[in-house]
Design goal:
Blueprint (H helix, E strand, L loop, with lengths): L2 E4 L2 E10 L2 E7 L5 E4 L6 H11 L4 E5 L12 E3 L30 E4 L4 E6 L5 E8 L2 E5 L6 H10 L5 E3 L14 E5 L11 E4 L2 H4 L6 E4 L5 E2 L3 E2 L18 E2 L5 E2 L2 H40 L1
Parallel strand pairs: 4-6, 10-12
Antiparallel strand pairs: 1-2, 2-3, 3-4, 3-7, 5-7, 8-9, 9-10, 9-14, 11-14, 12-13, 15-18, 16-17
Subcellular location: Secreted
Protein name: SRCR domain-containing protein
Keywords: Disulfide bond, Glycoprotein, Membrane, Repeat, Secreted, Signal, Transmembrane, Transmembrane helix
Length: 297
């Protein structure tokens, strides 16, 4: 994690997938990093941390059993009562009594400048429309800047392998009612966040559609479905991923060759079993008729 020092009072967010989200840690001069207890921890306290880190403002706070792993260092502050205008947490009123907190109560925050990427509109997280998180909402990427290099970066960032399909989706994905992102990447870039990004540059995104992507770890071939923008914050690396609100416009996906093959084999096996059962019934009846005819004679 990246730390920021204000008047020798360093702060950082640890345990997250981006420097603007994680467990709050403070540096005490001459000692070591330590955590903050979640007692009374709220958005005003968290705003101080986000502002100090240059990460905007607090979108949400976490505490006991939160999304970020527990710390191991000393717990420095408890029952903070910041106004949100302080330069660092040490300036905020806090309990001067011994705390009774454990690390399961470590305070965390997700700031508005969290950068995250996800794929929505498919039946798994490795396929769908490319969406970018910023300032509490999910925007889309203009396909006028979308190529194999950018697709490879996103598949890698999501732990989804390599790009299989990234252009010419029919029907095309549509943009969300949010920010339009345009990325200018170069061969030495390995991460989408290293690329130069432009927000809502209409001249760059004129007549564009929303970029889509199918990675090799996806289990099917997907067609676009309509997705609604949401303020849910996601991790941009492997791990649990929340989903956007989705409304299906028709059948959401067509099957991969592997899945189609499995279904075909299963159907043939079923037909073989049915045929075998019918033949058994037929021969049993014929044998029964033969024995009856013999008895009459």
């Amino acid at each position: 994690p990246v730390s920021v020092v204000v008047e020798h009072q360093a702060v950082r967010l640890a345990g997250g997938e981006h420097r603007c989200a994680g467990r709050v840690e403070l540096w005490r001069e001459g000692q070591q990093w330590g955590t903050v207890c979640d007692d009374e921890w709220d958005l005003r306290d968290a705003d101080v941390v986000c502002a100090q880190l240059g990460c905007g403002y607090a979108l949400s706070v976490t505490g006991q059993d939160g999304a970020f792993p527990q710390g191991k260092d000393p717990i420095y502050l408890d029952e903070l009562k910041c106004t949100g205008k302080e330069e660092n947490l040490w300036q905020c009123p806090a309990s001067d009594e011994s705390h009774d907190c454990g690390h399961k109560e470590d305070a965390g925050v997700v700031c508005s400048e969290l950068k995250a990427v996800r794929l929505t509109g498919g039946v798994d997280r490795c396929s769908g429309k490319v969406e970018i998180h910023r300032n509490g909402s999910w925007g889309t990427v203009c396909d006028t800047c979308w190529g194999k290099e950018e697709a490879s970066m996103v598949c890698s960032m999501l732990g989804c392998g390599e790009p299989v399909h990234f252009l010419a989706f029919i029907p095309p994905f549509t943009h969300n009612d949010s920010t339009l992102w345009y990325y200018q990447c170069f061969p030495n870039h390995t991460d989408l966040w290293q690329c130069k990004e432009y927000a809502n540059k209409t001249t760059l995104c004129v007549d564009s559609k929303a970029a889509g992507l199918i990675c090799s770890e996806s289990h099917g071939r997907y067609l676009p479905v309509t997705t609604e923008a949401t303020t849910t914050v996601l991790s941009r690396r492997p791990g649990p991923v929340t989903t956007a609100s989705v409304s299906n416009d028709g059948f959401p996906f067509s099957m991969s060759l592997e899945l189609l093959g499995c279904i075909s084999l299963s159907f043939l096996l079923l037909m073989a079993l049915v045929t075998n059962a019918l033949l058994c019934c037929h021969y049993r009846r014929r044998d029964g008729w033969s024995q009856t005819a013999t008895y009459i004679q």
